[in-house]
Input
Amino acid sequence: MKTRKELARLGIELLGPIVPDWFKFQSDGGSVPGGRVGRWLFKETQWRAAAFIHDFRYYLIALLLRSDLPAWVGVRMEADFELQKNRKLCAKNRFIGWAYSRIIFRGVRISGANSIRLPAELVVPPTLKAIEEIERLCLEYYYARLTDQAKEQVRKWKESL
Output
């Protein structure tokens, strides 16, 4: 499995936020249908770092926005398009990377909305420092301020620690 740091050493810079280590333990790192055959066919380990970034973007989207808001559709599309670009960047073969990235993009467009959770269902960051990092990333990648939904969930997380 190539990590983001290993890809950077190879000259491949992925788009999106740096994913905290605690988040990677609760993410599947890229759902691929078809079991072992699907994982082999799509060379899943090549693009695991890109999938973690995508999953983390969905995590931030779920924290910030309700799925009935028009903005939710736009930021989800941005995250899915970023996954497509990152998948192409991770590919050893340009044509295969292009083809797989388009298939993966279609897959997350069709079924990705089902994986975005309600704020109360999100994994609680393990420390106050991690919560503050989540707040910073929300501000950096989505808004100049936290939404009321995000403020309420962050307050609950801080109380639980």
Notes: The chain has one domain: 4-117. The two ends are 33 Å apart (CA to CA). The mean pLDDT is 83.
